[in-house]
UniProtKB/TrEMBL annotation:
<feature type="domain" description="Cadherin">
    <location>
        <begin position="1"/>
        <end position="43"/>
    </location>
</feature>
<keyword id="KW-0325">Glycoprotein</keyword>
<dbReference type="InterPro" id="IPR002126">
    <property type="entry name" value="Cadherin-like_dom"/>
</dbReference>
<keyword id="KW-0812">Transmembrane</keyword>
<keyword id="KW-1133">Transmembrane helix</keyword>
<dbReference type="GO" id="GO:0007155">
    <property type="term" value="P:cell adhesion"/>
</dbReference>
<dbReference type="GO" id="GO:0009653">
    <property type="term" value="P:anatomical structure morphogenesis"/>
</dbReference>
<feature type="domain" description="Cadherin">
    <location>
        <begin position="44"/>
        <end position="153"/>
    </location>
</feature>
<keyword id="KW-0732">Signal</keyword>
<dbReference type="Pfam" id="PF00028">
    <property type="entry name" value="Cadherin"/>
</dbReference>
<feature type="domain" description="Cadherin">
    <location>
        <begin position="168"/>
        <end position="256"/>
    </location>
</feature>
<protein>
    <recommendedName>
        <fullName>Cadherin domain-containing protein</fullName>
    </recommendedName>
</protein>
<dbReference type="InterPro" id="IPR020894">
    <property type="entry name" value="Cadherin_CS"/>
</dbReference>
<keyword id="KW-0130">Cell adhesion</keyword>
<dbReference type="InterPro" id="IPR050174">
    <property type="entry name" value="Protocadherin/Cadherin-CA"/>
</dbReference>
<keyword id="KW-0677">Repeat</keyword>
<keyword id="KW-0106">Calcium</keyword>
């Protein structure tokens, strides 16, 4: 007998005598099948995938896992547990928790995409039978990047009161490469796409900045009338929403010799 196939039977028994005509009577027996714990909980999915944006508040709900047990009563009562593990050198439970009754998985702390991009964990569903039966499922959690980092200028190095200057000879032709602004953004995707713009300049008609490559070049022929001391301010912006930016100042000396620069 399998309670999960048929939970009860109505059995009719008829008693007939040998007279002529025969006489009879009937009795109906109701037979209920009692449950034994012969089924383990089964998750509704073979695996679970969840996405959560970084910088989330603690106790943010990530997803819900659910398992069904075909048994009955206490044998069918499912409880959920995280299988112990480590994440970035810390116990998994310091990052994730699960409601043992509902299967709702929560974030215990804010995630940082730049430190942790994704991870896997195991969740166990266990029934209330004696002995209990259980099954595990893999949960994949992907951290989504937010634009929480501004671009960082690697070159030219900003040293505060520095008077170091890039030198442009007076014989420089149109398109002369003065220098190149190099910046990085530790975010991902479009949050890390950088653009370069000339914010201020002593002579805006003399220099331009490549929008994508950060190259500073001369726009026209350098002449004897151009001032020796030129100062440029370049702003580097990422493509996040809203965007973040960094500013770099560049000193340029228009001169043919070092004494002239001094």
């Amino acid at each position: 007998l399998d309670r999960e196939q048929t939970t009860e039977y109505n059995i009719t028994i008829t008693a007939v005598d040998g007279g002529n005509p025969p006489l009879s009577s009937k009795e109906i027996l109701n037979l209920k099948i009692s449950d034994v714990n012969d089924h383990a909980p089964q998750f509704e999915q073979e695996s679970y995938n969840a996405f959560i944006a970084e910088n989330n508040p603690p106790s943010t709900t990530i997803l819900t896992v659910k398992a069904i047990d075909m048994d009955w009563g206490p044998n069918a009562k499912v409880s959920y547990f995280l299988i112990d593990g480590d994440l970035n050198g810390a116990p998994l439970a310091s990052y994730i928790s699960i409601n043992s009754e509902s299967g709702v998985i929560y974030a215990e702390k804010a995630f940082d995409y730049e430190q942790l991009k994704s991870f896997k964990m195991q969740v166990k569903a266990q029934d209330g039978g004696s002995p209990p039966l259980s099954n595990n499922v893999t949960v994949n959690i992907v951290i989504q990047d937010q634009n929480d980092n501004a671009p960082q200028v690697l070159y030219p190095v900003q040293t505060g009161a520095s008077v170091v200057a890039e030198i442009v000879p007076r014989a420089a032709d149109v398109g002369y490469l003065v220098t190149k602004v190099v910046a990085v953004d530790v975010d991902s995707g479009q949050n890390a796409w950088l653009s370069y713009k000339l914010q201020k300049a002593t002579d805006r008609a003399l220099f331009e900045v490549g929008l994508q490559n950060g190259e500073i070049r001369t726009v026209r022929q350098v002449t004897d009338k151009d001032a020796v001391k030129q100062k440029l301010t370049v702003v580097v912006e990422d493509n996040g929403q809203p965007s973040r930016s960094a500013v770099v100042s560049i000193n340029v000396a228009v001169a043919d010799s070092f004494p002239e620069v001094l």
